[in-house]
Amino acid sequence: MEMAALDLEVRDNLIRRGVLNDGYHPEMEAIHIRNASRLKEILAEYGWPRPALVGDDGAESAWLIVQHAIGDPPFQRLCLRLLQGAAQSGEAPLWQAAMLEDRTRMFEGKPQIYGTQLETGSEGRLRPYLLEDPEHVEERRKRVGLEPLSKRLAREKPPPRPADPERFEREHQAWLRRVRWRS
Fold first, then answer.
1. Could you tell me which of 175, 181, 182, 172 has the C-alpha nearest to residue 21?
2. 16-58: per-residue pLDDT in tens?
3. Are the CB atoms for 41 and 182 separated by under 8 Å?
4. Helices 2-17 and 51-67 meet at what angle, rounded to 10?
5. Sign of dihedral through CA atoms 117, 152, 20, 121?
6. How many CA atoms lie within 13 A of 155 on its CB side?
7. Helix 51-67 to helix 26-46 angle, to the nearest 10 degrees?
8. Full DSSP string of the chain
9. Which of 56, 39, 141 is nearest to 92 (CA)?
10. Cα 167 to Cα 27, 106, 108, 120, 170, distances in angstroms
């Protein structure tokens, strides 16, 4: 729980400083790497942190850490399988596995299933990243305990735009290749 709290604290600090949305900030990346490294040790010893072992808050913290471990695709994919197993056995919320699945699919350049990953459109409004079978997304969201997409979109505010969107996109694509989300 301390690792997840530090993650959110650093994120909030970077937002206040106005530097979070101009690329993957090195301070944020360092926290994500350190937290993922420690979670790997925990997984090796105990398996996926289920509420029976670490409580609901501890299990949700593990999910947040893995959700943010974006620089380690093999680790996120492993955790997705572990989390899906825990969710299927009722030991983790289905929405957590759904959000992690969407996140990995987005970074892989594939359409997401549940519409949990958002992006800012050219008109400046948030929209879901590319969706697989968009006509049935609300049914899938409901099945895993997610609120309707329209409610989520109405609640969320778009993040500040990068100072140089073209540079941001070039660096993002280079990062995706460097960490091996994409070839």
1. 172
2. 998 888 889 999 999 999 999 999 999 999 999 999 999 999 9
3. no
4. 30
5. positive
6. 6
7. 150
8. -HHHHHHHHHHHHHHHHT-GGGS--HHHHHHHHHHHHHHHHHHHHHSS--HHHHHHHHHHHHHHHHHT-TT-HHHHHHHHHHHHHHHHTTSS-HHHHHHHHHHHHHHHTPPBSS---EEE-TTS-EEESSBSSGGGHHHHHHHTTPPPHHHHHHH--PPPPPSSHHHHHHHHHHHHHHTTS--
9. 56
10. 20, 20, 20, 16, 5
What whole-number distance in Å separates Cα of residue 169 and Cα of residue 74?
23
Sign of CA dihedral 171, 173, 174, 176: positive
Contact 114, 101 (CB under 8 A): yes
Cα(10)–Cα(20) distance, integer angstroms = 10
For the whole prediction, is pTM greater than 0.85? yes
Q: Which amino acid is at 32?
A: H
Q: What is the pLDDT of residues 52-103, one digit of tens each?
A: 999 999 999 999 999 999 999 999 999 999 999 999 999 999 999 999 999 9
